[in-house]
Every structure is written in C-alpha cells, then in structure tokens.
Amino acid sequence: MKKTVLAGAAALLAATALTSASALADDIKQGGSMIVTYKDDVSTLDPAIGYDWQNWSMIKSLFDGLMDYEPGTTNLMTDLAEDYTISDDGTVFTFKLREGVKFHNGREMTAEDVKYSLDRVTNPATQSPGAGFFGSIKGFDAVAAGDATSLEGVTVVDPYTVKIELSRPDATFLHVMAINFSSIVPKEAVEEFGADFGKHPVGTGAFSLEEWTLGQRLVFKRNEDYWRAGVPKLDEITFEVGQEPVVALLRLQRGEADIPGDGIPPAKFLEVTKDPQYKDLIIEGGQLHTGYVTMNVKMPPFDKLEVRKAVNMAINKDRVVRIINGRAVPANQPLPPTMPGYDNEYTGYAYDPEAAKALLAEAGLADGFETELYVYNTDPNPRIAQSIQADLAEIGIKAEIKALAQANVIAAGGEPDQAPMIWSGGMAWIADFPDPSNFYGPILGCAGAVKGGWNWSWYCNEELDKQATAADSITDPAKKAEREEAWRKIFISVMDDAAWAPVFHEQRFTMRSERLGGPDAIFVDPVHIPVNYDYVWAKDVQ
C-alpha cells in the first residue's frame, strides 16, 4: 500500500502485542465520544476501492472480513469466520461463518454475501485496486479477462459455509482474507447506491456512518447490534477534515480534539516530544514500512551492479534519520525488522564513500557521472533528497533533484526510461498485510516491473520469482520457519543485486488526549492504520 505522507515504520514488537480481542472488552464501560482530525477529506469508504492510510482504519471499523488481526498486533484471528479448515495440499479453504451477524441495514449476513463480495471486488467493472490480491482463487483469470462474472473457486456450501478453492497453494491467503478488499458487503446496498456506495457504506462493522458533510466532517456511531461483545467502546467518533496538522495539534493541546490523525507535524516534533507535560500522551509505534532509493536497472549506468552497490555505500543513513528528528531507524534490507523473514544477522552495505569510489572505478566510471533523483515535493522529502545528493556528490555522482508533485513522481517511476533514481519518501511502501511476500511482488518482483507498476527499479529476477512462488506454496503451519527462511534468502539475494538502497524504517509518533484510554498499541496499530478505533475508550464514562 502506498502512503501519501511520510509513513510509519517497522512493525510492533511481539512484546507489545495484546493478548486477545476479548481481553480488551473486559471491565470497560461503553460510551463517550472522540474527535479525530485530518488535513484531507476521505475519497471513499467503499472497501473494494479505498486504498490509502487515512481511510484504511475507517473502513475496518465499518466493515468486517472473514479474518482480521488481534488489536495492535500482526497476529491473525478469525472475524466473520467462526472457524476454518485448510486442505492438506493448501488449495481449499473452508470457512464456517458466525450466525446471526447483521449488516447495518438489519439483514443477516450469509455465505451468499461472501461470494457476492469476492465476485464484486475481482470484477473489472468495479475497478478495485486490490483485485490482484485474489489472483490465486480458481477462476480469477477468467473474471479478470471479462470471460466470467463469478469466481469458479468460491462455492456456497450452505448459508453459513463457504468453500474457496485456489488454483495454487498460497500461504498468504488468510492474510488476503483479512485486508479491506475482502470486506463483506450486502448486494442490495451496493445496487441501491451504485457508484455512490463509497459515500453510503453498509457493512457489518463496529460502527456505521451517520453523517458525512464533504470537506467538513464524518460521524460514525456505535453499531448496537455488533456481533462482538463489548465492542466498540465509544458511542461516536467525529472525523473533522480540512485541519492543518499544526492547527490540529494546537486543538488537541487546548482539549478541543482527541487524536491528530496525521500525527505530530515535523515542525513541532521536537518541541512536543521534549515537553514533560505530554510525556504520557505521546505514543511511539511501528508500521510495516521501508523508505528507499530506487535505481532503474534498465537505464545506464544503473544496469551495472558495481554502480548500484556504490550508491548503497554512499548514503549516510544516520544523517537522513537526523533530518527527520530521529523518527526512524536506519535500514539495511527491504523488510522491516519485525516482518517475518527479516535477517537479524545481515549488515548490508556499510557507509563507506571510499569503497564506493573504488566500485565506480571498477565500473569504468572513476570520474563519476550525471543523473537525476526524483522526489515528492513535500517536506521533508526534498531535504532528504538534498542529503542524498550531497552523499552522491562525494563519490563523483552529480544528481540533479527533480522535485515534483506526487502523481508526477509515480508516473515517472512507472515508465521504463524516465526516472533513473527515486527517493520513495511520501510514497514509501507500507505492507498491505504482515507477510514478506507483499514486500516483494508489487515492488521488487517481475509482475511489478511494468508500465504503471510500483517496481520503480524495473528489477526482474525470474529465478527469485520462482523462489517466491515456491515460498508461498508452503502452506503447512508446521513449516512456517522453513517458509520464513526461504523469504530471508530471497531478500538477501535482492540486496546482493543491489536493486534498492534501503534508507530507513520510520517510527510513527502520535498523541492522544488525556480523556482517551486503551493500550498504546491500538493508537499505532500496524494493520488498522493509523488507529484501531474499535478499541479506544473514553475515561470520562468509566
């Protein structure tokens, strides 16, 4: 998932994980409200369409899927599915649904709704950016090509049982069933509102949409018929939009708002974090994120391995981290530190300008060369690019900075011959789900190295693609360690090819008002980004 602001970083440590969803429901009285501020309005609340960090957790509060994650963690748990089984060969998933779950319109959810929702999200007419996640379901190719309107592999067994057959083993499939695109929607509501369903969402979630005044606010109210006992905690959430981050912070400090949805603005970061009165209100956490520099392997001289290694050795990552006031940890590989497959022993390419110069000389470029570094033109990204520019100049690479609007940078990256280098900040990758495969296919695999794709290095290693497919075919839970080791080797091989220069994993810092309660982890939830609204509670009603 591409983020539209400087993103959060590496996932929460297991030590911070919450024990279970039910544990959060104990002894907390329901009631109260909170105000969340955002700079920008939400474009849609349709789970098949919404794909940015701001509406991600809003959608999760309005809708449910078959699977979800324990609050504040990356641990899978059942959601609308009460239970499931997986065939020995890892190709057939059978889900037993909870009975009595109701949509916001009062109708009971059944297996027919599951099939409809999966058919809808994969139908090209829906234009879902997440359709590709369902590529392993039998019959997907026919639906994607317009030759079928229904997924062959999804079968309604009875009103509370659905069987999903895959065309290949897919160890990530339960994660796919937990992402927003897999949310269950009622056919009659989609048909009633058509293209405006995203403005009139109807789900089974903990909250329902009560009001949406475009450009001003959205109001969520508690779903009193929600199937999960004791959830949500709050009666109401108001999302006020059009709030500049600095103004939003000031309103929180005055007691007029409860959560600055865009986080602590960089300009106020040191002032706020060093103020003792806010010590207990500031929350630090991680996301499944990496910021990196891409080098287009199709454009000389980045087609030379020595040049790409030299760039990796030239960047002073510690200085880049200082530019953003220490809100990150330096990166030496694509995966964030707590993503399965992360190699704790790997040290990567150490900062060594002299060794970098030697590599350029080895590549026949002892005098350096000229190139371009594309960057999103919103602070702090141009400042980071300038730091990288200075580092490259030290080894003889003269990089002209092309600071452009985000859409223009993305467009340049999606062309094979336009952007030799890109700093990903502001558009950096944050995983759609906590599995290493999501950090490979879209941004490093051959499938992403296409026009309009997210693989801006245009790196395509067919052998690694085969290894990735083999890793995702290991569906037996008993072989989890084997699968993680396979992915570890893949990403270290990527670094051997130096397709990227990983720079940092940014930590997310946010604040809450004194009147809000709940475990810190839910305010920086790595999956319900940025806040798991369902489990926030109000102290003033306890």
Automatic annotation (TrEMBL):
<dbReference type="InterPro" id="IPR000914">
    <property type="entry name" value="SBP_5_dom"/>
</dbReference>
<comment type="similarity">
    <text>Belongs to the bacterial solute-binding protein 5 family.</text>
</comment>
<dbReference type="Pfam" id="PF00496">
    <property type="entry name" value="SBP_bac_5"/>
</dbReference>
<protein>
    <submittedName>
        <fullName>Peptide ABC transporter substrate-binding protein</fullName>
    </submittedName>
</protein>
<feature type="domain" description="Solute-binding protein family 5">
    <location>
        <begin position="77"/>
        <end position="448"/>
    </location>
</feature>
<feature type="signal peptide">
    <location>
        <begin position="1"/>
        <end position="25"/>
    </location>
</feature>
<dbReference type="InterPro" id="IPR030678">
    <property type="entry name" value="Peptide/Ni-bd"/>
</dbReference>
<dbReference type="InterPro" id="IPR023765">
    <property type="entry name" value="SBP_5_CS"/>
</dbReference>
<dbReference type="InterPro" id="IPR039424">
    <property type="entry name" value="SBP_5"/>
</dbReference>
<keyword id="KW-0813">Transport</keyword>
<keyword id="KW-0732">Signal</keyword>
